[in-house]
C-alpha cells in the first residue's frame, strides 16, 4: 500500500512547511559552541591597549611595566608589526587601515598595542600597565568641517594622493566621489517641474550590536605550518583568502572556522585589527591565542553603520506624478574606509534610491569623507546602503505628498511601478525582477481600516484636551538583495557567487555544505527543507554544515540577504543535478526509459502506474550498490551559483503612533507589516526574521545612536545608553504577505531577513513626523527618543 | 571589563562583618546585590581592595511588622519587596516602585539597602525613602544609630554612613489605610535604565483637605531631593489644579540635573515637574 500523497508530502517537512528550527534545541539549552567556548591546550589571551583620545601623535609607548607582570608573554606595537609588513592592512573598500596605530591615532578606542598573557585577568592588568604618551591634535568629528579648506589633515599616510580606490580625491580628507544616473536629464526634469521639494536629513551613526561581540582563537602550528582560526565571521572563506594574502601562508594551510555565531547584522563581515593581531601573536609565540572584545570595544571600534548626511529633491507635476529625483550625500566613513561593499560600489547599492516608483530621471552622488571616528559603514541588517536609500526616497515621497496636500497612500499609488511594467529598468539601471505593489498596498490599507485611522486622527487633532498626538506612517519599500551577479559584484576580485555541495549517503540520508554561514537565520532548518522538496528525502535526515573552510565549498558568506537568493539557488541546482542522475538510476532499476518516468514527491514512478516506482531512498542505495553500467557510482553534486540578477523583495508597512504631549514618549499602537519575499520556504522562520528585523528597525528609529563630543569622545557606548529593546519596549507586530516569485531564481525566492529592518525604519519616522504634519513639520531626524520628540513638541508650541 | 584583583570575605554574622570592616579599614567595601558596585569595578572606576559580601547574613533579610513599624532588612531584594503581602497592604509604594527598578534579573539580586547605601541619585530608593519618611538603622563598632532618610543623602555617592558602618535595616511607618495614597512615577528610556526623572509622592487627604504631603525626586540633582516646598504647597487645602501647579513649580525650582544622553537640564527639569504632577494625581486618586 502506498501512503496517501499528502502524508508522504508532510513526512518530508519540505518547502512551505513551518518546520521547527533545528538549531534551537542546542541554543536554548546553552549547548551552542561559540568562539569564546573554544578552549585549546596552551591557549593564551590577548587584550588591546586602546587610544583614550580621538586624534593624536604617539610620542612614546612604554611596555616595561606590563612586561614585568608575571604571566605576560608579549606586548606588541605597530613597530613590532612593521618588519612583517602587517602594521597596516588593506580594507575591503580599497583603502588601508592601521592594524595598530602607526605613529598616529585616528579615533578614540583605536588599537594601539596588544598584550598577550596567560589569562584574560593578567592581560587586563597588563593593558593598564602599558604607558602611552600622546601629543593631542585637533579632532575632526563633523564631515562638513573635515572638507573645509584648512581642516586638519587626518590621513597623513595618503598625503599628496589625489587618486583613491574609486577615483579622484578633491580634498585631503575626501575619500571618493561616486555617482549614478543621468545628471543632465535629472536637472532638465527639475527645470521643467511644476513643483519641487527638497529635504535634508541625517541618518545617524548606529551600530549593529550583535549579542555576541567579535573575537577569535588563532592557532598556528609551527611544525605543520598550518593556521587554524575560529572566528566570529559572516564570511569565513573571504577571511581565509585575506589571511593567506596577508600572511603568505598558502590558502590550503589556512583553516577558518565560524562556529555558532551569536548574530552578525553586518558587524562580522570585515577583518578587524584584533583578528590580525591574534593571528600574528599565535605565529610569533607558537601557541593558540584567544581574543574576545567586550561590549564597549565592540560598540566603539568595530564597524558602525549609516552616518549619511543626505539631501533629497523631487520634481513632480501638480498632480503628484514624480518626474525627477536628485540625491546628494556626504558619507562619514570615519578614519579608514573599511566599508564592506562589493568592490565596485563604494556606496553599495545606494542607487536603489528611486525605490518602488517609476521615476523617469534620477541622479545621485555620494562623497565619502574621513573623520576621527571608528571606521565601518557596513550593511546593518540590510543590503549595502539600501537602508539609507529606502529611508531617503520614502521620506521624500512623504514630503512631496505633504507639499501637494495629497494623501501619502494616494501619492504612492500614483507613482508605483505597475505590475505590467516588470521586469522594470530603473533610471539608475537596476532591472527589478517582479513586483505587485498596488495589490499589496490595498491589502494593508484594508486590513488596518486606513480611512478610519485618518478620521480618528482628524478628531484627535481637533481635540485640544487630547493628551497625545496621533501619527500614521506608511512606507512602500523595494529592496535589492542577493549580491550578486559576478559580472558587477565582487569582493577583492572574487565574484559574489555562492555554492552548495550535497552528498546523498547509501541509506538515503544526506549532508549539504554551503559557502554561507548562519548567524541566527536558521539555515540548518531551511536549507534542509529545500533539499527535502527537491530530492524527496525527509529534511530530518539532511545535515547542513557551514562555516568550516576546510570542508565547505567556497562562498562569499551571509549578509545582504544573499543566503536564500544565492546559496538557496545553489542548493536547488545541486539538488537538481542529483535528481537528474537519480532519474537515470531509477530508469535502469525499473528497466524503462527515462521518458516513461515521472517525479512524485519522493519517488520516480512509471507514468500512470503507481505500483512501479523507486523512491529516492531506493535510488541512493542503488547508486552505491548497482549503478547502471558506465555510470560513476555515488550520488552527490556541487553547484556554484552565479545569479543572473539581484532579487527585489518589497513590502508595505503601516504604523500608528501616539505621542505623549508632556514627555515626548512615542507609543507604537499598531504596526502592520506586509512582506513579499517571493516563494516562502519556512513561514514560521520568515515570521521570526520579520519580528527580529522590525525590532531592530524600531531600535534604530527610536533610540540607537553613537554620538561624539567635540573632542571626539564616543558617548553612549554601553548598553546603558545604546538602545537594545527588550520585550517590554518592543511593540506588537502584525505580519502579512503576498507572494510574487522572482522569475529568475530557481525557487522563486527573494530573501527576507533584512526587509523588515530596511522597511520599518522610515515607517517609524513617517509616523512620528505625521503626528506633527498639521503643524508644518516635514521631517525629524532619528532617533525619535522622548527627549528629541519633546524638543519638537516645544518647537511646535504643543503643550499638554 | 575585568577588575583588578581584590580580596573577598563572606561573613555569616553581622559582628563578623563589622570585625572584617575594622580589619580591612579603607580598603573594605560592602558587597550587597552588586549591581552598582560590580559594574564600577569592571570599568575600574572603583578599585576596592577587599569585598565583604553580606549576602549570607540571615539577620539582614526579611520584612516584618514590629511595634507599629514595618522593618525591612537591608539585604531584602527588590523582588522580595514586590512579593511582600505585608508591604502591598501597609506600604504599597514600595512594591509598586520596586517594579520600576531595572529588570527581573537585577531585581533578583539588587537589594533595598544597597540601593540606598550607594548614594546614587539615579537610584530609586533614596527618593522613595524620603517620601516614606523612612528611618535607616546603621550598625557600626559603636553600636546602632538611626538616621532619617531626609538627612542621609549628602552628595553623589556620599551619605551620612561612616566607613565602618553597615546599613542594616530600613524602618517605615505603615500607611493609614483609609486616607493615605502614594505613587511613584518614573520616566525612563527603557527597561534597566536609570530615571530621566522620577517623583515619589505620599499624600493624606482628610475630609477633602490635604493633611499630609511628602514629595521626593529621583535623579534631578546630586542627591535625591526632598521637595518640601512642593509638599507644603499642597497641605491644608483641597487638591486643585492650582495647588498642583504650585507644587510642580516648587518641585522644578529645586531641580539641579546634569545634562547627559537622557536630556538637557531643561528637559529633565520639565520631566521632574511632569512626574510630580502625575504622581500627585495618582496618589490622590488612591486616597479613599
From TrEMBL, chain A:
UniProt GO MF annotations: anaerobic carbon-monoxide dehydrogenase activity; carbon-monoxide oxygenase activity; copper ion binding; iron ion binding; molybdenum ion binding
Substrates-to-products reaction catalysed: CO + a quinone + H2O = a quinol + CO2
Domain Aldehyde oxidase/xanthine dehydrogenase a/b hammerhead: residue ranges: 29-138
Matching InterPro entries: Ald_Oxase/Xan_DH_a/b, Ald_Oxase/Xan_DH_a/b_sf, Ald_Oxase/xanthine_DH-like, AldOxase/xan_DH_MoCoBD1, AldOxase/xan_DH_MoCoBD2, AldOxase/xan_DH_Mopterin-bd_sf, CO_Mo_DH_lsu
EC code: 1.2.5.3
Cofactor(s), by name: Cu(+)
Annotated keywords: Copper, Metal-binding, Molybdenum, Oxidoreductase
Pfam family, one: MoCoBD_1
Major enzyme class: oxidoreductase
Function: Catalyzes the oxidation of carbon monoxide to carbon dioxide.
Subunit structure: Dimer of heterotrimers. Each heterotrimer consists of a large, a medium and a small subunit.
Protein name per its UniProtKB record: Carbon monoxide dehydrogenase large chain
Automatic annotation (TrEMBL), chain B:
Keywords, alphabetical: FAD, Flavoprotein, Oxidoreductase
Record-listed E.C. numbers: 1.2.99.2
GO molecular function, one term: oxidoreductase activity
Record domain FAD-binding PCMH-type: where: 1-177
Keyword hit for Flavoprotein: yes
Short name of any one Pfam family annotated for the protein: FAD_binding_5
Record-linked InterPro entries: CO_DH_flav_C (IPR005107), CO_DH_flav_C_dom_sf (IPR036683), Diverse_Substr_Oxidored (IPR051312), FAD-bd_PCMH (IPR016166), FAD-bd_PCMH-like_sf (IPR036318), FAD-bd_PCMH_sub1 (IPR016167), FAD-bd_PCMH_sub2 (IPR016169), Mopterin_DH_FAD-bd (IPR002346)
UniProt-listed PANTHER family: XANTHINE DEHYDROGENASE SUBUNIT C-RELATED
Presence of keyword Transit peptide: no
Enzyme superclass (EC): oxidoreductase
Stated name of the protein: Carbon monoxide dehydrogenase medium chain
UniProt organism field: mine drainage metagenome
Cross-referenced Gene3D superfamilies: 3.30.465.10, CO dehydrogenase flavoprotein, C-terminal domain, Uridine Diphospho-n-acetylenolpyruvylglucosamine Reductase, domain 2
Amino acid at each position: 500500500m502506498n501512503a496517501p500523497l499528502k502524508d508522504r508530502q508532510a513526512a518530508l517537512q519540505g518547502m512551505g512547511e513551518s518546520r521547527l528550527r533545528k538549531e534551537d534545541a542546542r541554543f536554548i539549552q546553552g549547548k551552542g559552541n561559540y568562539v569564546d567556548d573554544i578552549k585549546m591546550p596552551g591557549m593564551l589571551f590577548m587584550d588591546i591597549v586602546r587610544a583614550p583620545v580621538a586624534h593624536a601623535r604617539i610620542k612614546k609607548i612604554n611596555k616595561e611595566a606590563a612586561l614585568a607582570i608575571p604571566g605576560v608573554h608579549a606586548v606588541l606595537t605597530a613597530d613590532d608589526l612593521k618588519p612583517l609588513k602587517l602594521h597596516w592592512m588593506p580594507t575591503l573598500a580599497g583603502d588601508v587601515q592601521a592594524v595598530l596605530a602607526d605613529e598616529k591615532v585616528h579615533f578614540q578606542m583605536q588599537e594601539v598595542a596588544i598584550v598577550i598573557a596567560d589569562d584574560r585577568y593578567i592581560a587586563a592588568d597588563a593593558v593598564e600597565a602599558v604607558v602611552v604618551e600622546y601629543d593631542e591634535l585637533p579632532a575632526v568629528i563633523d564631515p562638513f568641517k573635515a572638507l573645509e579648506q584648512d581642516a586638519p589633515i587626518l590621513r597623513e599616510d595618503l598625503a599628496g594622493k589625489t587618486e583613491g580606490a574609486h577615483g579622484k580625491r578633491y580634498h585631503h580628507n575626501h575619500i571618493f566621489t561616486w555617482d549614478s544616473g543621468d545628471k543632465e536629464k535629472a536637472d532638465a526634469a527639475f527645470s521643467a517641474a511644476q513643483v519641487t521639494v527638497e529635504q535634508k536629513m541625517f541618518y545617524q551613526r548606529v551600530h549593529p550590536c550583535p549579542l555576541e561581540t567579535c573575537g577569535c582563537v588563532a592557532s598556528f602550528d609551527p611544525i605543520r605550518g598550518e593556521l587554524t582560526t575560529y572566528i566570529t565571521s559572516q564570511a569565513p572563506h573571504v577571511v581565509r583568502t585575506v589571511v593567506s594574502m596577508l600572511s603568505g601562508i598558502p590558502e590550503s594551510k589556512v583553516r577558518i572556522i565560524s562556529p555558532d555565531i551569536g548574530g552578525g547584522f553586518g558587524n562580522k563581515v570585515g577583518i578587524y585589527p584584533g583578528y590580525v593581531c591574534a593571528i600574528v601573536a599565535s605565529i610569533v609565540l607558537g601557541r593558540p591565542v584567544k581574543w574576545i572584545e567586550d561590549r564597549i570595544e565592540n560598540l566603539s571600534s568595530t564597524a558602525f553603520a549609516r552616518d549619511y548626511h543626505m539631501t533629497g529633491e523631487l520634481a513632480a507635476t501638480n498632480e503628484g506624478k514624480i518626474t525627477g529625483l536628485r540625491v546628494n550625500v556626504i558619507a562619514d566613513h570615519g578614519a579608514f574606509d573599511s566599508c564592506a561593499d562589493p568592490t565596485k560600489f563604494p556606496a553599495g547599492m545606494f542607487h536603489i534610491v528611486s525605490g518602488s516608483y517609476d521615476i523617469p530621471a534620477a541622479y545621485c552622488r555620494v562623497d565619502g569623507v574621513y573623520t576621527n571616528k571608528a571606521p565601518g559603514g557596513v550593511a546593518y541588517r540590510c543590503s549595502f546602503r539600501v537602508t539609507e536609500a529606502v529611508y531617503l526616497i520614502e521620506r521624500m515621497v512623504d514630503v512631496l505628498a505633504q507639499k501637494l496636500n495629497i494623501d501619502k497612500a494616494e501619492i504612492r499609488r500614483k507613482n508605483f511601478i505597475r505590475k505590467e511594467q516588470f521586469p522594470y529598468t530603473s533610471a539608475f539601471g537596476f532591472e527589478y525582477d517582479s513586483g505587485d505593489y498596488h495589490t499589496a498596498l490595498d491589502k494593508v490599507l484594508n486590513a488596518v481600516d486606513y480611512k478610519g485611522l485618518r478620521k480618528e486622527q482628524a478628531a484627535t487633532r481637533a481635540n485640544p484636551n487630547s493628551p497625545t498626538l496621533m501619527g500614521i506612517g506608511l512606507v512602500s519599500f523595494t529592496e535589492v538583495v542577493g549580491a550578486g551577479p559576478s559580472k558587477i559584484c565582487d569582493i577583492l576580485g572574487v565574484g559574489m557567487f555562492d555554492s552548495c555541495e550535497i552528498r546523498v549517503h547509501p541509506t538515503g540520508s544526506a549532508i549539504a555544505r554551503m559557502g554561507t554561514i548562519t548567524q541566527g537565520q536558521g539555515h540548518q532548518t531551511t536549507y534542509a527543507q529545500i533539499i527535502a522538496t527537491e530530492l524527496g528525502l525527509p529534511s530530518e535526515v539532511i545535515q547542513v554544515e557551514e562555516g568550516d573552510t576546510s570542508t565547505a565549498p567556497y562562498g562569499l558568506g551571509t549578509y545582504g540577504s544573499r543566503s536564500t537568493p544565492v546559496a538557496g539557488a545553489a542548493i536547488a541546482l545541486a539538488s537538481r543535478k542529483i535528481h537528474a542522475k537519480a532519474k537515470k538510476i531509477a530508469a535502469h532499476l525499473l528497466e524503462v526509459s527515462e521518458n516513461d518516468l515521472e517525479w512524485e514527491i519522493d519517488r520516480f514512478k512509471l507514468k500512470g502506474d503507481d505500483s512501479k516506482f523507486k523512491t529516492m531512498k531506493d535510488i541512493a542505495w542503488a547508486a552505491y550498490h548497482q549503478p547502471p553500467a558506465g555510470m560513476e557510482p555515488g550520488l552527490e553534486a556541487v553547484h556554484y551559483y552565479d545569479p543572473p540578477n539581484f532579487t527585489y523583495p518589497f513590502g508595505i508597512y503601516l504604523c500608528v503612533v501616539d505621542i505623549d504631549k508632556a514627555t515626548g514618549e512615542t507609543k507604537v499602537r499598531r504596526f502592520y507589516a506586509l512582506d513579499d519575499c517571493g516563494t516562502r520556504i519556512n513561514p514560521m522562520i520568515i515570521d521570526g526574521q520579520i519580528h527580529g528585523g522590525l525590532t531592530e528597525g524600531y531600535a534604530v528609529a527610536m533610540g540607537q545612536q553613537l554620538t561624539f563630543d567635540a573632542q571626539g569622545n564616543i558617548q553612549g557606548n554601553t548598553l546603558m545608553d545604546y538602545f537594545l529593546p527588550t520585550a517590554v519596549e518592543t511593540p506588537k507586530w502584525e505580519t502579512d504577505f503576498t507572494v510574487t516569485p522572482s522569475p529568475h531564481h530557481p525557487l522563486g525566492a527573494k530573501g527576507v531577513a533584512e526587509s523588515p529592518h530596511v522597511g520599518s525604519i522610515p515607517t517609524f519616522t513617517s509616523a512620528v513626523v505625521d503626528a506633527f504634519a498639521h503643524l508644518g513639520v516635514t521631517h525629524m531626524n532619528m532617533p525619535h527618543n522622548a527627549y528629541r520628540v519633546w524638543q519638537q513638541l516645544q518647537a511646535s508650541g504643543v503643550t499638554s | 571589563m575585568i577588575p583588578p584583583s581584590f580580596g573577598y570575605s563572606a561573613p555569616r554574622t553581622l559582628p563578623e562583618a563589622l570585625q572584617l570592616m575594622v580589619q580591612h579599614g579603607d580598603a573594605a567595601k560592602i558587597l550587597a546585590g552588586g549591581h552598582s558596585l560590580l559594574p564600577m569595578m569592571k570599568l575600574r572606576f572603583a578599585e576596592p581592595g577587599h569585598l565583604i559580601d553580606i549576602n549570607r547574613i540571615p539577620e539582614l533579610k526579611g520584612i516584618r511588622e514590629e511595634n507599629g513599624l514595618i522593618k525591612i532588612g537591608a539585604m531584602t531584594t527588590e523582588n522580595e519587596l514586590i512579593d511582600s503581602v505585608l508591604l502591598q497592604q501597609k506600604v504599597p509604594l514600595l512594591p509598586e516602585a520596586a517594579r520600576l527598578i531595572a529588570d527581573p534579573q537585577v531585581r533578583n539580586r539588587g537589594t533595598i539597602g544597597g540601593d540606598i547605601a550607594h548614594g546614587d541619585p539615579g537610584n530609586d530608593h533614596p527618593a522613595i525613602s524620603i517620601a516614606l519618611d523612612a528611618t535607616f538603622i546603621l550598625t557600626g563598632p559603636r553600636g546602632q544609630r538611626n538616621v532619617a532618610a531626609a538627612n542621609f543623602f549628602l552628595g553623589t555617592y556620599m551619605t551620612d554612613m561612616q566607613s565602618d558602618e553597615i546599613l542594616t535595616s530600613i524602618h517605615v511607618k505603615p500607611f493609614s489605610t483609609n486616607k493615605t495614597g502614594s505613587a511613584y512615577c518614573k520616566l525612563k528610556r527603557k527597561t534597566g535604565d536609570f530615571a530621566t526623572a522620577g517623583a515619589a509622592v505620599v499624600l493624606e487627604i482628610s475630609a477633602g483637605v490635604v493633611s499630609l504631603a511628602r514629595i521626593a525626586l529621583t535623579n534631578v540633582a546630586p542627591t535625591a531631593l526632598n521637595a518640601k516646598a512642593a509638599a507644603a504647597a499642597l497641605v491644608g487645602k483641597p487638591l486643585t489644579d492650582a495647588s498642583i501647579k504650585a507644587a510642580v513649580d516648587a518641585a522644578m525650582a529645586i531641580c539641579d540635573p546634569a545634562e547627559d544622553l537622557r536630556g538637557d537640564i531643561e528637559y529633565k527639569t520639565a520631566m521632574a515637574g511632569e512626574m510630580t504632577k502625575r504622581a500627585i494625581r495618582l496618589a490622590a486618586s488612591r486616597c479613599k
